[in-house]
Specification:
Blueprint: H1 2-21, H2 24-50
Length: 52
């Protein structure tokens, strides 16, 4: 379990460093893209439950 936590924190630190290294416009773009993907997944789940 400790090994998994270490890997998680290592990759999280790398992702945060990459994100902070981006220009502000690209940071907004990444954030917007994550929101769109989240909404798409939510819509797919809701539609799959409605059509059952």
């Amino acid at each position: 379990m400790e090994k998994i936590k270490d890997l998680y924190h290592q990759y999280l630190d790398q992702i945060i460093a990459w994100y902070n290294g981006l220009e502000q416009l690209y940071q907004y773009g990444v954030f917007f893209l994550l929101i769109v993907i989240g909404l798409f997944i939510t819509a797919c789940v809701i539609l799959s439950r409605i059509t059952k």
